[in-house]
Design a protein that fits this description.
alpha+beta, 28% helix, Jelly Rolls, single chain, 313 residues
Length: 313
């Protein structure tokens, strides 16, 4: 276990002058050298987090037949329950492995844009309805947590802009109707050595601008590859784990790095849950490297869809 950089978001937001500049310098260093950091003083209400954990625990404690009622209706459908042996995240990096030892419940944007998107795939993929389980309070808890993650992501993106010597509102025009997704993950207990190359989540990088991860308290398993070695990412009370995604690496022209990570599988591990909010700019957002020659842009939505579909088994 090593110490990850810690960024005091509230402290940054309330700072001025040389203090604010110091925060920006540190954030730039964290994102360019490690690609992972911990966010403290984030102001997300404890009640919202606790309600979400309770709802997720209820969902995953159900029998498989109950979860099947909200299963994704066909491969590639983005929202609902994805059961065991359905994904292999390492495939997004071109590595063939056995399926990941996990299941998940997934939810998408809470609203569709008022302006029609020309690319119909946006509605077929990102704006499909979330298939909600019939658990009292689940949808409310999920929605409240999603909204808090949207607000937190916007604040982090503003801090990112300043760390890149840009205006605080630089990213706003790309985030008018983000296609972010929230995923609740459950990694069942492991009682034996898995198949060769099999992990709870295979080695991968995340696809979007940033990920806001909340691991289950007092659990471990997330690992980051740093300087050629796999290191454990700590779970620290009242902090979120933030990591840079592939799109942000492209956006910064490689200045910031999207780091390889995994959830390791070992014998005799207890079950583990986590909440991952994958922040993604608007479907039609054209992403050019900042301060670079503008060649062909990466289009946010199609880029995400291609990455997501590559992981199915």
């Amino acid at each position: 276990m090593v110490s990850l950089p810690v960024f005091n978001l509230g402290g940054f937001e309330n700072s001025t002058g040389t203090s604010r500049k110091s925060y920006c310098t540190k954030l730039d260093k964290f994102c360019s050298e490690v690609g992972f950091l911990l966010i403290e003083n984030h102001a997300v209400p404890d009640k919202i987090i606790e309600s979400q954990w309770s709802a997720v625990k209820q969902f995953f404690s159900q029998a498989p037949d109950a979860k099947m009622k909200v299963s994704v209706p066909y491969p590639g459908y983005p929202y609902g329950w994805i059961g065991p042996n359905k994904e292999a995240l390492a495939a997004s990096k071109g590595e063939k492995t056995p399926p990941d030892l996990k299941e998940s419940f997934n939810g998408g944007p809470l609203q569709t844009p008022t302006k029609k998107i020309k690319d119909g795939r946006a509605y077929e993929f990102c704006y499909q309805p979330t298939i909600w389980p019939e658990i009292d309070g689940f949808k409310e808890a999920w929605t409240n947590y999603y909204l808090e993650m949207e607000k937190l992501a916007a604040r982090i993106m503003s801090a990112f802009a300043e760390a890149l010597n840009l205006e605080p509102y630089f990213f706003d025009k790309y985030l008018k109707c983000p296609i972010s997704a929230l995923r609740a993950l459950y990694y069942p207990e492991t009682t034996h050595v898995p198949e060769y190359g099999q992990q709870r989540a295979g080695a991968h990088t995340d696809y979007g601008s940033l990920t806001i991860l909340l691991p289950q308290p007092e659990t471990s398993g997330l690992q980051l590859k740093l300087n050629g070695k796999w290191i454990d990412v700590p779970t620290i009370k009242d902090t979120f784990v933030i990591n840079i995604g592939d799109l942000m690496e492209l956006w910064t022209g490689g200045r910031w790095i999207s780091k390889l990570h995994r959830v390791v599988a070992k014998p005799n591990q207890p079950g583990r849950k986590s909440l991952a909010f994958f922040h993604q700019p608007d479907w039609e957002a054209k992403i050019y490297p900042i301060n670079a020659v503008k060649n062909e842009p990466v289009i946010s939505g199609p880029y995400l869809m291609e990455k997501f579909l590559s992981t199915g088994t």
